[in-house]
Amino acid sequence: ASQGPSSDIEAFRTLLKGSKRVLALCGAGLSASSGLSTFRGAGGMWRNHDATVLATPEAFAEDPGLVWLFYSYRRHKALQAEPNPAHYALAELARRMPEFWCLSQNVDGLSTRAAHPSAQLKLLHGSLFDIKCFNERCGYIERDNFNDPVHPSLAITSEEDPRMDAAGTTNETSDSSAGAQNGRNSSKRSSTDQTIPTSQLPHCPSCRTGLLRPGVVWFGEALPVNTISEISNFIARGPIDLIMVIGTTATVYPAAGYVDVARRKGAKVAVFNVDGADLGSATGLGKEDFLFVGDAAETLPSALK
Ligand code: BJW
Ligand code: ZN
């Protein structure tokens, strides 16, 4: 036990108070208590598709209608959701600590809506609300498109549209009587394979031939180059006191690599995660580090007080 990370919140607050240059690496768990799904583990499936398989240029090229329905659903859910106390606590920390930067892998817009100062919020994986041309040579991009639906063909027909309910993908394992009760099962099966013909999907207003796509970073794609260079410059400017790793499995690179980068710049690591089991080893926590197991919406506001 003496080797493991600390969960002493007073010791963490003391460390934070004495810190000047601080990073947070945030992931889907930050928005979990706002009702948004994570990628891995429970909730990481949509219509029997693994979310990480849909988040690829190959999946979009293969079935753009299916991938757009996934993202249209995610836009809808994110717009319905509200920032939670963890988003607000981070935004508040940013206001009182000018050299605290939040590196977020999330695309849901909730940190922005919690009024996190934008210069201190780096969106590593883009935004659900940027729309760009799938033809990379075109370069068209529209920012902050909050239309729901983004295009008439991508309307979410009801709050609990069965074809899109993440919970609905537990079809095979769910209790059939529960399914019958809410009347979802039959419609779910009949609409599971629905997609949208390419001709009906939104096309680029600039080149007119390319399909539009969400402005997120898919596997195999480069992260936004300006964002990456800003972060590199921040890191190069001097030692880092602390990196908080919040609601992420820290398995996707290059984002996850910032934990080790910060550590090499002297940072202590503080993990905030509902699942304490593997995170300690994933991030290589030592006895100088911190691990707070629980809902980030509860642990973070109290730690950042
Ligand atoms: C709670 C909670 C609560 C729950 N409170 N906690 C080695 C080195 C470098 C790269 C690679 C490499 N090996 C392979 C690669 C390539 C690849 C990669 O990393 N693959 C890994 C799987 C190994 N990386 C890439 O392809 C990246 N690009 C790249 O490398 O480009 C190279 C290049 C250079 C130049 C030119 C061209 C190319 C791009 C990665 C993009 C990732 N995109 C996605 C989708 C974004 C769009 C969308 O949202 O749909 O990003 S994938 C998905 O994973 C999404 C997330 O941001 C990301 C991370 O997931 P996250 O946030 O950690 O979620 P989960 O579900 O994994 O974890 C949730 C956590 O929360 C859990 O721990 C829970 O316990 C916890 N939790 N509730 C607190 N209430
Ligand atoms: Zn175009």
Automatic annotation (TrEMBL):
Species of the source: Coleophoma crateriformis
Protein name in UniProt: DHS-like NAD protein
PANTHER family (alphabetical): NAD-DEPENDENT PROTEIN DEACYLASE SIRTUIN-5, MITOCHONDRIAL-RELATED
Compositional bias annotation for Polar residues: 168-201
Binding site for Zn(2+): C133, C138, C204, C207
One annotated Gene Ontology cellular component of this protein: nucleus
Domain of life, per lineage: Eukaryota
Protein family (similarity comment): Belongs to the sirtuin family. Class I subfamily.
